[in-house]
User: Fold this.
Amino acid sequence: MAINKPSGLLVHRSPIDRRETRFALQMLRDQIGQHVFPVHRLDKPTSGVLLFGLSSEVARLVARQFENRSVGKHYLAVVRGYCPGQGRIAHPLKDKPDPHADSTGAAEKPAREAVTRFRQLASVEIPVEVDRYPHSRYSLVALTPETGRRHQLRRHMKHIGHPIIGDAKHGKGVHNRFFASRYNCRRLLLACTRLELDHPLSGESLRLEAPLDASFNNILEEFGWRAASAQDS
Assistant:
């Protein structure tokens, strides 16, 4: 089963956010009337294609494709600044222990390989002083992670100086607040728009796509990026 997870929805129960009462896994289980098994994860603020297996065996087979890096993962993001035309970010990332999720006090793990490819689809300059410049620049980028580290895309875009808009942890608050007040956009502008993989039983090639929500689409309209966003389809 594939769903289009909205921004702000956790995949499953987590000690990271004990106040949450709605979870994608439970909602899907109740909707179809049977257990489902998560294959991969999306951060709570990230929207897009989320895949579940209808059995633990099938979920393991699909998860193996993710582990073998044979799944095509395609994201759209809006970032601060004029992002370079294209590039490859090879910057190892450490999985820092989460004090809420890990009560054992485990030490910080060593950095692991993390690779992301990016391509600028469009850019815009608006005559508004958001930070310290009289004009503000933003880019629409297509992101393809080759590895699957925690917060990889968000951390990698920050690493090259183009944080994703709406990222409360790795972004810049002044730009996040500007998008909230000017465009009524209060979400992380990162969405998994497409997954490409093989069906675990038949071997058939699957292309799973998820449309953007109204908030993300509004930004594309405001900046004239509708046609550019289709370049990654």
Observations:
- The chain has a mean pLDDT of 92.
